[in-house]
Design brief:
Blueprint: H1 2-32, E1 41-50, H2 51-63, E2 68-73, H3 80-94, E3 98-104, H4 113-121, E4 125-129, H5 137-142, E5 149-152, E6 156-160, E7 178-187, H6 190-205, E8 224-231, H7 235-246, E9 250-254, E10 258-259, H8 262-273, E11 277-283, H9 291-304, E12 308-312, E13 316-317, E14 321-324, E15 328-332, E16 336-337, H10 338-342, E17 346-351, H11 354-369, E18 371-373, H12 376-380, H13 384-395
Parallel strand pairs: 2-3, 3-4, 7-13, 9-11, 10-16, 11-12
Antiparallel strand pairs: 1-7, 1-8, 2-5, 5-6, 6-7, 8-17, 9-14, 12-18, 14-15, 15-17
Helix pairs in contact: 7-8, 9-13
Length: 400
Amino acid sequence: MKFLLYLCGLLLLIIIWLGVDFHLGRKKHLVLGSKVETGILHGHFEIFTHGKDFFKHYFQELRQATVHVHVLYYIVRDDDLGREFFTILKEKAQEGVEVRLLLDRLGSMEIKPCIVKELREAGIHFAFSNRIKLPYLFYSSQVRNHRKLTIIDGKIGFLGGFNIGKEYIDGEPKLSPWRDYQLKITGESINFLQSEFLLDWHEYGGENLHNRPAYFPKLPKGGVRHQFTPTEAGQLEENFIRLIQMAERAILIGTPYFIPSAPIFAELLEARRRGVAITIIVPFTADHFLVQEASYRYLRTLIQAGARVYQYKNGFYHAKTILVDDKLCDIGTANFDMRSLFLNKEINCYIYDPDFIERVRAVINRDLLDSELLTMAALTKPNLLRAAKERLAGAISIFL
């Protein structure tokens, strides 16, 4: 009996510590986070939606680098694709190209010290971002650098949903084919992407490199109007609310995880009340425990309000996009969930060019053809296991 009391007491202390740690860590993060948003920039854009096509092109561009390669990823796996990626970077470093590689500490936990040692011995400047650290161990373990960003020679940028691992090139049968949206960008805005990478590198790599002119060449303007919005510590919530409020006719949201905050959800319902059509695309197959169940209570209410929800059934849908009328398209690294809203470092691109928006809409229309409309009947059919999982998911939704 004594042992049981001690155990219960220990569990209570752990729960209290976790709560205090998270609260104080978040409070500090909110103070440190600074809002950044570019003005309107002009560039050239390409979009990739299939991993094999993207990585063939991406690796080719890496191999052609002549000056520097700066890479930030959330996940790089120790598998065939990850090893090919590391081999290319090592070869470029040995050729004299400056290579800097920044990986999220937990997202890329497969990258062991022996691999890091090999990379550094080849001449690669390597660092882990968002390491777990005192005094807020629990909170810092939850704040991830979810950005996926590459800058090549200060002239070419890549931004989007793909990480590096076999699942992203259809190597995981349950999740294949993998569907994602990735941007290749050229033009004047690459200077901003370079600056964002260097800010993270300064924080985690320990070097302030912003004063190097070679990183910021003079670049021509392109034809696509856009702006970048890096976010952290709750800034994304305000951005998403602003996008929803802009809508006059239609909002389309594509996301692998639909777990909005209460203010965002209220804005979506208000948009429906003023007659805005809402379409949501989510995966039919989940890649993480409880993420689907966490979305169901929101999806039920939206469907009742007249929104249309589609489940993508041709593999796994990992794209992150928002379309507002015909005037704005958002593509980036942020999911439509509370982890991206409040815990992750993210970066999104708002595109205002009508022609490129139509290209994205054509991609989405193809994805809708591979999707099935989700009905209230499917969401309200009695299911005790699902109900239990929904309750659990609701309690921990910020961590999903």
